[in-house]
Amino acid sequence: MALKSPVDFAGSISSGQKHPCCFGVAGCNRSRCVRYDKKSRTCRLVTRAISVDRPQLDFSNPDWKKQFQEDFNRRFSLPHLKDVIDVEPRPTTFSLKSRSPLENVNGSMQGSWNGYVNDDDRALLKVIKFASPTSAGADCIDPDCSWVEQWVHRAGPRKQIYFEPQYVKAGIVTCGGLCPGLNDVIRQIVLTLEKYGVKNIVGIQHGFRGFFEDHLAEVPLSRHVVQNINLAGGSFLGVSRGGANISDIARRLDMLFVLGGNGTHAGANLIHEECRKRKLKVSIVGVPKTIDNDILLMDKTFGFDTAVEAAQRAINSAYIEAHSAFHGIGLVKLMGRSSGFITMHASLSSGQVDICLIPEVPFTLDGPNGVLRHLEHLIETKGFALICVAEGAGQEHLQQSNATDASGNMILSDIGVHLHQKIKSHFKEIGVHSDVKYIDPTYMVRAVRANASDAILCTVLGQNAVHGAFAGFSGITTGICNTHNVYLPIPEVIKSTRFVDPNSRMWHRCLTSTGQPDFH
Ligand SMILES: Nc1ncnc2c1ncn2[C@@H]1O[C@H](COP(=O)(O)OP(=O)(O)OP(=O)(O)O)[C@@H](O)[C@H]1O
Ligand SMILES: O=P(O)(O)OC[C@H]1O[C@](O)(CO)[C@@H](O)[C@@H]1O
Ligand SMILES: [Mg+2]
User: Fold this and answer.
1) Which atom of ligand 2 is nearest to the CA of 409?
2) Euclidean distance between CA atoms 329 and 434, whole angstroms
3) Are 460 and 485 in contact (CB under 8 A)?
């Protein structure tokens, strides 16, 4: 079986099917609907509908909540090795009481230590009871916004494990673009595997390519090798985009830890399905990596905080330039192909941004309500202005090519360059002096090492990934939901990209802070 190649993606787009960033059945998740917008060629949050979820519920039926919960529990149950093969658990070798896991080999060290997670422990996915679908950011199942408990599985070490550590060969692979914290996660996976007693740990070089390109040899990993890798940004193992043949991946390893975004998780799930089909005792566990913070259901993905912090430096420089110049206009473009989280959060935290533009909120440039008119107003009233724009914003204003990257992601036209030119020519046309400074810190923002809060998040995620594999789960990923650490089945997190909700309090806070009007 082959991973989707760029050709498959291009084919699926031209034949009118779903864009690869609109993974999933309907491109919808509960009260939000995600569609591929042909004009802008991005996935967009296009409607707010009440309950577009499966199953089709009849809210007049007194049992609808029960039906919903049954469906939810089915979808969020975690695939386990014992679903398809006969495997017996054994007492865990993970103990913080002994120096070496081998001292713990018969499970006698477990004693009364309360450090294990029970398989029936759950965390609540939704914690707000919205009174009405019109409440800001409301995420309702039925028109009355009834409260329905939605429990997901708690992450962490179990008392019983499904692998003999001394016979385990574990692999780690990092795919997609770079993200601060990749090395921290690799390191934590290795340290935790060793704590269980695993000796055979390998890194796969340059993403999925490392599985099928002969010159990319496996890299032996140990505490000694990874001890200091978190002190630098990037990925110790290298990353890549592009297709791969996964038919052999399954047979080579007992555990595979896959660090990547939506695309990588789709690939990881294919590997998991292949292992299930062949009844192989292989555990595939994902760790969501996306600087864009665009993975469904999770509070936040690692590297995002660091990226926002790094973006501050660019915004601050743009501010200084704009503020010091006569009629200065600072323009900063930040990453975010489909989602504007980095741009929104960086704008919010800097406090200096006058105009924040994200892919989820279309805007006009010209006319009385356009961005350019507002810029004139800012120059008139405060003498300078600062714009922060996400790379995926305003694609409808640009000429599109049909180019895709090796993974099939659309190559977007440069909104930063376009805005730069439009602003300069607009002020020239109206005979008002302007001094526009454009800063594109794209790769500087993601090549840095993780900050303290991301380093902690990476620690939690890396360790939980290993606990999940030893617990016998496969086809899962680990994340943080409502501050709780959980395991989720991969298909549930790749149904669509996560978008900034234009009706959320956070976006409204951003608008309050910038003071920008609706650009319509
Ligand atoms: N739908 C898919 N099915 C299987 N494999 C996929 C799919 N989409 C992407 N992949 C594979 O996953 C890997 C990474 O994909 P991609 O480059 O899109 O990065 P990503 O994981 O989405 O992370 P990023 O957030 O950096 O974009 C590539 O090797 C690609 O071939
Ligand atoms: O240029 P590269 O390495 O393909 O990565 C760029 C992309 O990575 C992302 O951050 C996703 O991880 C996008 O926002 C961005 O367009
Ligand atoms: Mg992607």
Assistant:
1) 4
2) 7
3) yes
Backbone angles phi, psi at 495, to 5 degrees: -65, -35
Name which of 482, 447, 407, 414 is nearest 291 in CA terms.
447
Phi/psi-derived region of residue 394, left when phi > 0, alpha when psi is between -120 and 50, beta in every other case: left
Token couple for 4: 């989707």
Q: What is the pLDDT of residues 355-411, one digit of tens each?
A: 999 999 999 999 999 999 999 999 999 999 999 999 999 999 998 888 999 888 889
Q: What is the pTM of this model?
A: 0.90
Nearest to 258 by CA among 475, 78, 487: 475
Ligand 2 geometric centre to CA of 415 (Å)? 15
Q: Model confidence over 103-129: pLDDT tens digits?
A: 655 555 556 778 999 999 999 999 999
**Integer distance in angstroms from the first to the last C-alpha of the chain?**
47
Closest atom of ligand 1 relative to the 5 alpha carbon: 31
- The finding on whether 267 has its CB within 6 A of some atom of ligand 1 is yes
Which of the residues are catalytic?
A: 292
Q: Is the CB of 259 under 6 A from ligand 2?
A: no
Alpha-carbon span 201 to 220, nearest angstrom: 6
Dist. CA 491 → ligand 1 center (Å): 14
**Residue 346, token pair as written in the block:** 């960086």
Is the C-beta atom of 262 inside 6 A of ligand 2?
Answer: no
Report the separation in Å between the CA atom of 268 and the middle of ligand 1, taken as the mean of its atom positions. Answer: 9
What atom of ligand 2 comes closest to residue 241's alpha carbon? 4
Any atom of ligand 1 within 6 Å of the Cβ of 210:
no
Q: What is the architecture of the domain spanning 76-95+117-297+450-494? A: 3-Layer(aba) Sandwich (3.40)
Domain 304-447 classified CATH 3.50.50.60?
no
- For residues 515 and 520, give the distance between their C-alpha atoms in angstroms, rounded to a whole number: 15
ipTM of the complex: 0.97
177 lines ligand 2 (CB under 6 A): yes
- For the segment 187-197, what is each residue's pLDDT rounded down to a tens digit? 999 999 999 99
Kindly list the protein residues that place their beta carbon closer than 5 angstroms to ligand 3, a single-atom ion.
261-263
| Domain extent listing, the chain | 76-95+117-297+450-494, 304-447
Same CATH fold, 304-447 and 76-95+117-297+450-494?
A: yes
Distance 411 CA to ligand 2 centre (A): 10
C-alpha angle with apex 436: 430 to 437, nearest 5 degrees?
175
CA distances from 313 to 285, 384, 506 (A): 35, 18, 22
